[in-house]
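Support request, priority: normal
Reporter: lab tech (M.K.)
Component: structure prediction queue

Hi team, I submitted a job for C4-dicarboxylate ABC transporter permease from Halomonas cupida yesterday, and the status page still shows it as pending. I've pasted the exact input below so you can check whether something in the sequence is tripping the parser. The sequence length should be 506 residues. Please let me know if I need to resubmit or if it's stuck on your end.
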Amino acid sequence: MDVILAAVGDAVAWKVLVAIVVGTWAGIIIGGLPGLGSVVGLTIFLPFTFGMDTIMSMALLIGVYCGSVYGGSITAILINTPGTPQSAATTFDGYPMTQQGRVDEALGWATFASFFGGVLSCVLLIFCAPQLARFAVNFGSIEVFALVCLAMLCIVGVSQGSVLKGLLCGMMGFVFSMVGSDSITGADRFTFGSYALSSGFDLIPVVVGTFALSEVFMRLADRDDKAANIPEASLRFPHPREILRRLIELIRGSFIGSFIGALPGTGAATSAFISYAVAQKLSPRRSRLGKGEPDGIIASESSNNAVTGSSFIPTLALGIPGDVVTAMMMGAMVIHGITPGVRLMVDQAQTVYALFVVLIIVNVAMLVLSKPSIGLFRYLFKLPRGYVMAGIVMFCFIGAVSVRGNPLDAVVAALTGMLAYALRCGGYPLAPLVIGMVLGPQLESSLRRGLLIERGDFLGFFTHSGIATTLFVLIGLFLIWTLWSSLARRRAGPTCRSDLSHSINR
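Reply from support: The job had stalled in the queue. We restarted it manually and it finished. Here are the results:
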């Protein structure tokens, strides 16, 4: 108990609180600017921490991390441009709500769901970190492959116009993810002899081109001034009755994000798509998903923000960073004298508990700072339309190039934007393309490693472990449910039409 009280005292020191506010607000702004995100934000602020003490420096970086994940949802809702890849799934229902004049409601749900998911993941981190870490170790390549296959079902759900078009775009994204060096053998693929392509296509330029630049092209091509206006936005938190009505969706998305975040090598984007796919099957309002339903925002935002807390489980307990962001956080910890691993809770318990308290305070600060942050974006969007569009394009290219410093990423963003614009004109959904790009590398690498483990026997995947078997059974049940639902709709269609004709004739 003395250790916990001392940790709380370290976390609420005024210098630490100032670092939390600065980091969180900066993270929200950086996350909301198209093409930037958590990695860029941490890269900017990491040098400033070298003169700080351990808790203060980690508070600043954790604030930037959590704030940037939430900030991506603001532009995803306002202008159909996710500031970060983690918020790509938020566009599916967030932007339709904006088009329906419900932007305040959409922002309110995104903010509350982000806060709820972040706090719940912190609570789980405090009480369940050792147990979750031990369970996460059981996930090998085959289990991860089954989990990614479950997430790929999201492609069917977001392809409302035509499943065939959605699958085609999903395969396109999967092919994009295969460009560059083979993750297993190291051989170059689809590079056409170009050294610049050997590093492959980064996710951020593709997401920026798919959503941001294509949206700019659509707005420039639209001559209707009313349709081209950037909406003014405020923030209206949901009523307690609405929160209770959707409490199950909030808890489910938060638990999915907490679970996925504890698995090394997954990440917030994967978590958001898996949570959205589950909502498509389990939400009582699933028929409205993709048309402006808050459950879609809740599924995405509660899940991707829950990852921010649970991603520290493998990092702190096992010394295994789950993605690029947690790898940077782990490097910052080592610089400031924190050695992640199995001995951390024993040797530096006070520091670990202080970080847990900081995570909770950061989520509270994110809730408090959300309204002034959205007000800042509202001010920016009041600028003349040409300035706003030019600013979006500028930040898109800066964000596309700054992550890796590869000039080719600017070309990739531009070409992807043109391709996405052509696909939108043809009625093709863009979400499957990003889903294929996000999940493609994990799907391929886990499949090939699993085949090496099973010596080429794919059927062995289904009986490899209880976890893998359970996940494959869930996939089978979801596919059966989807087919049964589509057949039921087809059978009901002619009946409804005949009843309508009969009523008209009467």
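Strands lie at 180-181, 188-189. Residues 2-464 form one domain. Let us know if anything else looks off. Ticket resolved.
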